[in-house]
Amino acid sequence: MSATTPKADAPTGLGLYSRFAFAGAVCCSVTHGALTPVDVVKTRIQLDPVTYNRGMIGGFKQVIANEGAGALLTGFGPTAAGYFLQGAFKFGGYEFFKQQWINQLGLETASNNRTAIYLASSATAEFFADIALCPLEATRIRLVSQPTFASGLMSGFGKILKNEGIGAFYSGFGPMLFKQVPYTMAKFVVFEKTVEAVYGVVDKNSISEGAKTGINLGSGLIAGFAAAIVSQPADTMLSKINKTPGEPGEGTISRLIKIGKELGLRGSYAGIGARLFMVGTITAGQFAIYGDIKRLLGATGGVEIGK
């Protein structure tokens, strides 16, 4: 167990958590935005597996051949904007809620129950993050699944709002929670445990900052693979439910049940190869960037509860 004593001029309170939030916003926006082409192919495979049945590389070739290379950037706007907001709430919230548990339980008890704290803190943070992300994710999926729907973020967002109302943005909120909350719980717990294992055999204070970034990258990659496998079925359902509006009078629950029956277990894992690559890369990049930005901003205060 280790407690980090902040320097006298280190940020605390709102100043500290705003740095955590900013670092999280940047790392999520940059990584998700950069992987937009992979996300486009992954979504196409999920929504039309009959047509896009040649794997990730084949899917890239099909999209380019049918619609041009520019189609691979479909949804970049809502992706970058949505995950900027989500990253701020997710990473900033995770640090905040983790600290609140430590304050309530005390350092020793918190350390002895750190896995439960990681799980509870990440789940709570992700709930609020999804409230911010859901409208932009719904817009992204509509743009990707219906290339002629709108020209971009603003026009697509406005069209959905005008024609379907604000409720349409949250038709996928249930499956998003079902996807994102387990995803984030797995992501943070596996990352924390992997880092803890590495620093159990390597002295953190004796290695370079570059080596620490490398450890964050490797741990993030492992965490990303775990998170992708856990959340894949809900990710597929989220793509399906946001592809088109529901039938008149059809509720979200009934739509989810119908989609689940249509997909089956095998169908729910359509596009898993592309998503493993995407989520592994994204998560590795996120934790590396997050750690580096925190260090640059001096956001190193707080308490670590790993042993």
Automatic annotation (TrEMBL):
| Superkingdom | Eukaryota
Start and end residues of the Solcar repeats are 15-100, 113-197, 211-296
Could you cite one Gene Ontology molecular function of this protein? phosphate transmembrane transporter activity
Q: Does the keyword Cell inner membrane apply?
A: no
Q: How does it sit in the membrane?
A: Multi-pass membrane protein
Q: Which UniProt keywords apply?
A: Membrane, Mitochondrion, Mitochondrion inner membrane, Repeat, Transmembrane, Transmembrane helix, Transport
Origin species: Aspergillus uvarum CBS 121591
BP GO terms, sorted: mitochondrial phosphate ion transmembrane transport
What compartments host this protein? Mitochondrion inner membrane
Name of the protein described by the UniProt record: Mitochondrial carrier
Family membership: Belongs to the mitochondrial carrier (TC 2.A.29) family.
The record's Gene Ontology cellular component field reads: mitochondrial inner membrane
Task: Supply the InterPro entries for this chain.
Answer: MCP, MCP_dom_sf, MCP_transmembrane, SLC25A3/Pic2/Mir1-like
What Gene3D superfamilies does the record tag this protein with?
A: Mitochondrial carrier domain
Q: Name one Pfam family in it.
A: Mito_carr
